[in-house]
Amino acid sequence: MLAMPSGTPACPEDDRQHRLAAQLTDMIPGAATIRVSLNDPQQSWPHPHAIVKDETRATLKVGRNTARVAARWILRVWPEADWTRPHTFDLADATLTRSDLIAAGRGR
After folding, report:
1. DSSP per residue over the chain, as a string?
2. What's the CA gap between 1 and 13, in Å, rounded?
3. How far does CA 32 lie from the centroid of its chain?
4. Which of 5, 24, 63, 71 could lock onto 48 through a cystine, CB 3.0 to 4.6 A?
5. Res. 101: pLDDT tops 70
6. Do 38 and 48 form a contact (C-beta atoms < 8 A)?
7. What are the pLDDT digits (tens) for 73-94?
């Protein structure tokens, strides 16, 4: 990431996450969350995969290319995440959380 003369990053990380959320909201109307993993059930090797859900947690049908692009964009914004496990990107607050931690939180 490039820095300005002041030493401040040219594109702060929080800004990248919020811009990504805005882009994905525009690209996939009605989307609230996107679950991303490298386990596409139609592939025998690791491959970006996304499941898009609306506010009611109903799965939205999106094209394969749209899902793949969304997954790749999310993977690129969080390269340090442990992608051996699925993560969920919440578009409302631009946060990424491991999907199993979200499920555990609902059970409490």
Report:
1. --B-TTS-BSS-HHHHHHHHHHHHHHHSTT--EEEEESB-TT-SS-B-EEEEE-TTSPEEP--HHHHHHHHHHHHHH-TTS-TTS-EEEETTTTEEEEHHHHHHHHT-
2. 10
3. 11
4. 71
5. yes
6. yes
7. 999 999 999 998 999 999 999 9
